[in-house]
Amino acid sequence: MDIKKPIRSFRDLEVYQNTYAASIEVNTKITPKLPKEEQYDLTDQLRRSSKAIPRLIAEGYSKKHQKKGFQKYLDDALAESNEMIVSLSHVRDLLRVSKL
Hints:
Elements: H1 14-30, H2 39-61, H3 67-98
């Protein structure tokens, strides 16, 4: 059994750590490879969504004592995550088509 460190800050949340790392990866490894014609649409959406997810988790953590406040930010982070999934699916499919 793993011994968990106490959570003293949003930075201690595993979900924050994972989404922050994913956001760095999206912005350094994926968006630079997208075609120029996607720069103002898909690239912008990926950058904004990937950065919003850990921000919302951090902001929600600051309202952890307000059940509804915390839940709202987690719901918003989930919505951004779903947008991100769709955007990454577009990337996968557009890059596949462009290689044909």
